Amino acid sequence: MSEKACIKCHIITETKECPICNGREFTDKFTGVAIIFNPEKSEIAKELKTERKGAYALRIRK
Q1: Alpha-carbon gap, residue 30 to 12, rounded angstroms
Q2: How many domains does the chain have?
Q3: Strands of 12-13's sheet, edge to edge?
Q4: Splitting the chain (62 residues) into consecutive groups of 10 residues, what average pLDDT does each group show?
Q5: Alpha-carbon distance 46 to 52, whole Å?
Q6: Cβ of 7: how many Cβ atoms within 10 Å?
Q7: If both were cysteines, with which of 7, 11, 39, 56 could 25 make a disulfide (CB 3.0 to 4.6 Å apart)?
């Protein structure tokens, strides 16, 4: 299975259900990736409005 980005929370995953928001709408059309290691101290995590570690798509298209 290929990596896809959740349309709602932008996390990149290979699962059929989003591990963060439990959504099932994904796209493989995304650009830019931000990898969050320490969400408590990350300015990028604040911009993405996430409190979880992981890889996130910066821009997605449906």
Answers
A1: 9
A2: 1
A3: 12-13, 4-6, 26-27
A4: 91 95 95 96 92 95 82
A5: 11
A6: 18
A7: 7
Contacts of residue 57, Cβ cutoff 8 Å, sequence gap at least 6: 5, 10, 11, 12, 30, 31, 32, 33
Which structural domain range is residue 23 located in?
A: 4-61
Question: DSSP per residue over the chain, as a string?
Answer: ---EEETTT-BEESSSS-TTT----EESEEEEEEEES-TTT-HHHHHHT--S-EEEEEEEE-
Only one residue has tokens 């650009």, namely 31
Q: Residue 6 burial (CB < 10 Å; 0-12/13-18/19+)?
A: buried
Output the pLDDT for position 1.
60
